[in-house]
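Recall the central idea of this unit: under ordinary conditions, the amino acid sequence of a chain determines the structure it adopts. In this exercise we apply that idea directly, starting from the sequence alone.
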Amino acid sequence: MRFLSEEQELVRNTARKFAEKHLKPGVIKRDENAEFPSEQVKMMGELGFMGIMVPEKWNGAGMDTISYTLIIEELSRVDASAGVIVSVNNSLVCQIIANYGNDWQKETYLKKLASGQLLGAFSLSEPQSGSDASNMHTVAEKSGQYYILNGTKNWVTSGINSDVVIVMALTDKSAGYNGISTFIVPKDLDGFSVGKKEDKLGIRGSDTCELYFDNCHIPIKNLIDKEGQGFRIALTTLDGGRIGIAAQALGIAQAALDKSVQYAKERKQFGKTIGSFGALQEKIALMGTNVEASRLLIQKAAVL
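Accordingly, the structure predicted from this sequence is:
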């Protein structure tokens, strides 16, 4: 495993203790009931977990990317839903505004998102465009001091419980992906409505839904960067976001390994624990090696 600094070790231990104390109780019930961990999200905001890499100037924790992956891993090891919520708010919302937003947008939105006062969501996919994200139909037409937004977005993580959504929309339908722009859209705007919660197979504490825009008037000042920069912003941001996804998967894998080892030490067959059988020992050792190798790769990717 990569050598961690004292600060990174402290961050990891803080996340681990928080997850064990505040996420573990009731985690199975929350998943079964598709219950959003509202109180825990507030607490994570107070710990700086909602704006991990955001500079302190904008109410963030000012940590590095390694610390980000450690926090996501530790949260996901106990509650994968919490890991997803934190990952999206950090990598797909805060980072877009931090990297491409102006000072007014950072003052108005980033400060509150990074401190946990607001929760963010990211909205790119549509019913007809998942991986083919450039094939979008949602449009934002400029009219006076507003953009008028119309369209439907799919599979939006935290779409129900969020306060602010980063939305990609066409401002020039004739320009293809070069006509996509990025907007900060508060949920309280007229013409903005939320669809039903998707009934998922897992990670059910994190809500996923459709979003609908019907002549939703977005102030011009909520345009991030310039018109036509949305596709570049989305792809660049998603590249970084994949590190968070990998950290989530690693946390889940570590939890599975922990449970497997525990079971192997408790389950008895033929008068001894199944963990004492050579074949199973080899399998568990291989699992541990793969988890450690994955952790090293993620940390290398985070440095890059």
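The mean pLDDT is 93.
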